[in-house]
Design a protein that fits this description.
homodimer; 340 residues; alpha/beta; elongated; DNA-binding
Chain lengths: 340, 340
DNA sequence: AGTGGTTGTGGGAACGCTCCCACAGACCAC
DNA sequence: GTGGTCTGTGGGAGCGTTCCCACAACCACT
């Protein structure tokens, strides 16, 4: 085991040690077609001996690829790091990229640098594609990036009409699942605490609620619909209002777990038993769903899987930039706990 | 406004358009010394007109710098993204790097890839330095990376004897602040719920507790010391035990806010009034400190500032790799709320 | 008019890799 | 023997920068 030289070995040195040409050595390292076994072994041994590692910059210069992918987080960091959902996505992205031998370049798009620096960064030919995490309806960032000719995949589709590739949880299907479950449990007066109308997740989950009622032959009653803002407090208030508006309700589908947790509080306060009097189902399978009283039945979504899907889609996009790809909708499944 | 050509403009094209040599154009873009105003303006206009952006790979190839910094997260991602403390650090790192025109490459060092891929990644001459976020005492990663000749800065010093550059909160000073405050409030029987002995934060905060008692001329009473594991449950249990061991205590310094929150629960359960009977101080100023009953007096640390300090230190290290730098200890301050 | 400095400039060389073309040699069929 | 195809192979060219050296132009001074 000789000490590696001060300066990093080059491909040329590897080739010299192996007694082959630079081209052959390169062929061994990459695809490796049309190389004799003798040459291959010699090169591999030389690499081992010198501790050779290819210089990424030189490679990028000629291939015009960097094997790096940017993750642009357009949310406030508070939120991104605070919500376990985002953390899961990032974990999925991280491991999928590692498997594909790509690097993850993290860009925190604070309001400050957003307009100015961001496009500049991205054009620097520093990354092969961009993953974008954002929920805001009015975000023009995806279009902006695409204008630079970089493939983009958006996580958590911002608008229904978004032209970029995107990956999202199948909110409609998940909501149908939840409401269908309540119906199966014999509930006929199923209310919903819906999410904000200006977020896709809010709209789609409500859409699923409507569809499931229709499928079950139940009428859509406006008194059974209240909107919240995805916060726990809003769930609590919404539930109180529902109890006033429709005291005879026997099931509630909440557009997320936090609001469901609030609803449970309001129900207990009102003396309604869960699930005997009112069954409650949430959406998200957030950690809190395990610690509510009773534990919350909810629609499970896998953020990690979502991250992986984003990476898959982006890698496809880098290979066939022009091809049009359908948005990826990830299936959900129901986790039945004590509240239904 | 002419449409930019399909292929990105090169420095040579900029120079040609400006009617100067390649060298002069390069000089304008970088440091920019010894360039006539005439030439400078011509080049700047050409850059504007062509929408020129330097090719990072080509630059990295010759300068042997990438202007990118890796952030290696050796914790479980659950934890990193879950704790607001980490989120703050990352935010600080992100903005400090953006200001310094550096990129942030995020490496999630899951156990799986840790041994195998990591060193390989880092040697690829893909980053100029490494920021490491970890709390484990026995982590050999910093040494490993330094062996590759890459500057490393550790956030949240792992061991007192760590040879790497590091940035950490001044835990001793913070604990002294907290205990000193309790003493000022007239408390003479001040207990502590200490952190684990195998973490620097645990040891140092206890050390500060001891020092503050001594400074106040109060005796160190072993009955007033219980160790927890930084979890809320352990704080609750520790408090119960303290009440048994030393019913006459009138102040408690908890090594973090979560344990303090647990302690508050145990105190209420035991019928002790806070702060009248027992004053409680935490450490961290985590979000929970605002929502305990009563709101928690605690030692505030700024994770964002810590992230920035890590970046500062790393940039220094890349400029003077051999120079030895003292560890950076960040000051804390007390936030007085209702519990004291 | 000659000498010496300063300021600004152009362009060759090099960074370490991949791409690609030319070519040696083995093998086969006529 | 000649011509053709097919494997492997070596190495030139080029990717887009920065670094550096040579040199021109100009301004003093002797």
């Amino acid at each position: 085991m000789t000490r590696p030289p001060r300066t990093r070995p080059t491909l040329e040195e590897v080739a010299a040690l192996a007694g082959v040409g630079r081209g052959t050595a390169s062929r061994v390292i990459n695809g490796g077609e049309k190389v004799s076994d003798r040459a291959r072994q010699a090169v591999e041994q030389a690499i081992e001996e010198l501790g050779y590692v290819p210089n990424a910059a030189a490679r990028a210069l000629v291939t015009r690829r960097t094997d790096a992918v940017a993750l642009v987080i357009a949310e406030s960091e508070e939120r991104v790091f605070g919500e376990p959902f985002f953390a899961g996505i990032i974990r999925g992205i991280g491991s999928a990229l590692a498997e594909a031998d790509r690097q993850l370049v993290l860009l925190l798009a604070q309001a400050s640098q957003r307009r100015g620096g961001l496009d500049h960064w991205l054009t620097r030919q520093h990354v092969d594609g961009v993953l974008l995490l954002s929920l805001h309806d009015d975000d023009e960032l995806p279009d902006l990036i695409r204008a630079h000719g970089l493939p983009v995949v958006v996580g958590g589709r911002a608008r229904e009409d978004l032209r970029s590739d995107y990956v999202d949880v199948d909110n409609v299907q998940g909501a149908e699942l939840a409401v269908g479950h309540l119906v199966e449990r014999g509930r006929t007066r199923v209310a919903t605490i819906a999410g904000p109308a200006d977020m896709v997740a809010g709209r789609s989950r409500f859409q699923g609620y409507v569809a499931a009622l229709e499928a079950a032959g139940l009428p859509l009653d406006e008194r059974l619909v209240v909107r919240g803002d995805f916060g726990q407090g809003s769930g609590e208030r919404a539930m109180r209002e529902l109890l006033v508006r429709a005291p005879d309700l026997d099931g509630v589908f909440c557009a997320n777990d936090l609001m469901a947790a609030g609803a449970l509080l309001a129900l207990r306060e009102a003396g309604r038993r869960v699930p005997e009097d009112v069954a409650v189902v949430g959406f998200e399978d957030a950690p809190i769903a395990r610690s509510t009283l009773p534990p919350l039945t909810t629609v499970h979504q896998s953020p990690e899987q979502m991250g992986r899907a984003m990476v898959d889609l982006l890698l496809e996009a880098t290979q066939a930039p022009e091809a049009s790809r359908p948005g990826r909708m990830l299936p959900t499944h129901l986790v039945v706990r004590g509240s239904s």
